[in-house]
Fold these 3 entries.
Entry 1:
Amino acid sequence: ENNKIYLRAATNTCISGWPKKTEGKIYKTNIADIDPDYPGEEIIAVSTDGRAYLWHGDGTEVFGWEGGKWLDGELVDQPGIADLDPNYDGLEIVITSRDRGVYAFHADGTEMLAGSNGIFAFLDYGSPSYPAIADIDRDYPGLEIVFTITSGKIYAFHADGTSMISGQGGL
């Protein structure tokens, strides 16, 4: 309501430090223990204002995510969360946008692919769906990120950004 996100206890009372206000409508959220330096879980929310927000359970912003991450386009699908980079402490967050962008960040807000400005993949056409993350290529180290786009094509990438599909096109 009114561009706010609430975190409530089982008694339906608002937890201290909440609600949080954003400039756009909150579409989707996800919760996980993303920040290994903080006890408890974090809440990530994507908004129509083109930003992704990351808060600790007590309502404080996660370092590197202050004021939200500005991304290109309207963010309307649930962010994916997984350990995509075993050399990095914490979980990674994958966010898709209606403007064909797929973004990947470490817990501290730095881009997963160095020098990418957070862009993990940029598609020729269509809005990517919620990113499914799993180890589907047992011969390749790490996890893969799979999503569909509005045309029905399927895209699959290794965690290092290389496409599982020849020519980077979708199936």
Entry 2:
Amino acid sequence: YRQGAPALLMGRVDLQPTETQMKKLIPLALLACAATLSLPAAAQFAKPEDAIKYREAVMTVQGFHLGRLFAMAQGKIPFDAKVAASDAGVLADVTRLAWTAFLPGTDKGKTRAKPDIWTEQAKFKEAADKMQAEVAKLDAAAKTGNLDNIKAAVGPVGQSCKACHDNFRKD
């Protein structure tokens, strides 16, 4: 039946979407989700303390997953290719999150962030971009399931973390 007003009135309408309709609908739904998730970072935090807690939580998650990858690379825990790939994947996703929480006004209060983050924003962004690039390499290495590839990639990630902490974190 052709689906139109007469078919609808006669009760002969198939309300199941066709495969073509679904193929058109899915990208639109994803676009709507992406638009919702890309709200300005400032709108995500009611108070500066919320942004500080958020970025500290992100750093904790990063530390957990990177720590386990380091432990595998150093032979401190058994190598598990699936766990390594999962940890690297989580790390790749999570490393993009913290940077949105370094907003104006979040340099005050209980934070270890140095004021240099806000006075040297280009340098801070460069450090963040470097870390994300190194984490992307680690993620690719972990997907190979090869411990030697992970060993080669995990060191530069640690170095990028250390460089950022040395320059932008209070001790």
Entry 3:
Amino acid sequence: SIGPLMDSAREDRFTNELVNTVVGGWLITKKIGSGKSAIVFSGDKDGKTAAVKIFDPEIVETFGKENQLERIDRELGLINHKNKNLIQLLDGGECNTSGFLYVVMEKIEWPALDQVIDDIPRSNIWGIIESICDAASFLEEKNIALDIKNSEADILFVAMGSPKKDRKSVV
């Protein structure tokens, strides 16, 4: 067994605990997604809105806080490195007041790739694969390991091209 994963009851409690609080200086406004170990919220700071991924403390404890902080630090190494197929990382670490571990990324208003995959013309699939491979190669060169999950493609990878590109032209 790999330990506890966030179930829906814990996800609901965690969401209710965090909405309208501040984590790492970001005002958490609403939940926009979730995974097995974290919830992604919309957050505001200094007039900017971003996606704020906050890790479940119980899962962090299970897998090791230091391990997660090391991973966050590696990811934060990408802040000044840009790739057209990756969401830009903005901030992250351990919140000084709450102790929550978090990563902040640019927020893009797109559905998750797994929600629209059936609507994508077959002729566009190789372009998506090429974009994901380019992003993975870029990360490998930087010695950064991130999971590529089709349900999180809207958060970590811009598999449809540039974040500024109109995704509707691909779907």
